[in-house]
Amino acid sequence: MNDERLTVAEATEDTDERQPGQTEQRDEPEQPGQPEQAGKRKRRGPGPFTLLVLPALVTVTGVATFLALTGGMPSPWPEDSDADPATTVDIDPSYIPWLRKAASACTILEPSVLAAQIDQLSGWSDDTDELSGQKGIAAFTDTEWRTWGKDDDGNGHSSPRDPADAIMALGRQDCSLAEKVTALRTEGRVNGDLVDLTLAAYSSGTDAVTEAGRIPPTAETYLAEVKALLPRYEALDRADSGSGAGGAAGALLAAPVSPLTITSPYGSREHPLTGVTKLHTGVDFAAPQGAQVAAARKGRVVFAAPTNAYGNRIVIDHGTIEGKRLETTYSHLSSLEAAVGQEVEAGTPIGRVGSTGLSTGPHLHFEVVLDGYYTDPRPWLVAGG
Q1: Dihedral of CA 73/74/77/82: which sign?
Q2: Is the pTM of this model over 0.70?
Q3: Is the N or the C terminus of the chain less surrounded, counting Cβ atoms within 10 Å?
């Protein structure tokens, strides 16, 4: 429940760089001189150079050429099969849970569709378009923002330039359009794929879709551009394979306690003990004294000790997602069941719920820290919000 800044040093990762093999260079042996013979020269048979050295040189040269063309020998170490496929998508990793949460608001929408829309609208740039008045990565106008915008990440203000707010607003807008075109198709007034009809309604409006009874010509270019970008983001639609038991489909982190009953969300609040209003850096989950607390993802324990404000506290380093380090913290524990340096999997028991430190009662204060900055844990934990 305390809002201290995380100060635990990041764990050092050793890298084992392998040097490519070098081909041994050999000098050609000198051939002994042959005396000149009068008249016709006698044909000689193949000498030791031809029989022994030349084939070896040809073989070595061929292998070296093959390695140069193919980039070297294949690595004997397999890729990490537990890695979330979404981490291969080339966007800011902090956007991924928001894309999944926004898309979960309606069954028609997928995270890849939202991502492709944003790519088409802005290329993920939040520069303001002075001519159209569009702002942020989802290109909202002030009028549109008054309809769809909210302070979804709980940072105290709603802004189209806030990526989390913008992604969630676009999801609400798309889901509203999806609901309308679904009703139109149910009534037999339009025909076509519901995702295509939703994107067409976004581009040209539901009236144009209704009048055409299908995808209107005015929306065809936009629809084609968005669909061409979809393959870049298909990995976002697949559930995380590395979160382990307890994670919801599409969530990046497994639940640290069960059930996930929130008593105090992430965001600005008045501290119940100090009376100071500031950012609540995590989420408080209600749980009885002594309830099991589990690691939310595979990683390494980098801190496990009592603190003044957080009480018994554990910090787990989960490595990097697209170059940004992901850590989770677990505070106010009644007991510590993990030690610094311990490797854990998602679901590994690490402690028990308690009320140590500055706490009003038994609960788990859970935080998600991305590259040293606190972020709302809710979309990371449950795809459905």
Answers
A1: positive
A2: no
A3: C
Q: Which tops the pLDDT comparison, 62 or 348?
A: 348
| Rounded Cα–Cα distance for residues 214 and 383 (Å) | 31
141-152 confidence digits (pLDDT tens)? 999 999 999 988
What does the DSSP assignment read for 254-318?
--SSSS--EEE-SEEEE-TTT--EEEE-SEEEE--TT-EEE-SSSEEEEEEEEETTTEEEEEEEE
3-state class (DSSP) for residue 202:
helix
**Any bridge partners for residue 312, and if so which?**
306, 333
DSSP readout, 134-161? BBTTTTB-HHHHHHH---TT-SS---TT
- 233, 115 Cβ separation under 8 angstroms: yes
Q: CB of 295 within 8 A of CB of 316?
A: yes
The Cα-based distances of 93 to 53, 96, 123, 137 in angstroms read 55, 5, 15, 15
Among all chains, which residue has been given the structure tokens 């939040």? 126
> Would the pLDDT of 330 be above 70?
yes
Element (H, E) at 172: helix 163-186
Residues 23-46: tens digit of each pLDDT: 333 333 334 344 333 333 333 445
Cis peptide leading into 74, omega within 30 of 0?
Answer: no
What is the rounded CA–CA span in Å between residue 75 and residue 245?
A: 30
Which residues contact residue 160 at a Cβ distance below 8 angstroms, ignoring those fewer than 6 apart?
Answer: 135, 136, 138, 140, 145, 149, 166, 169
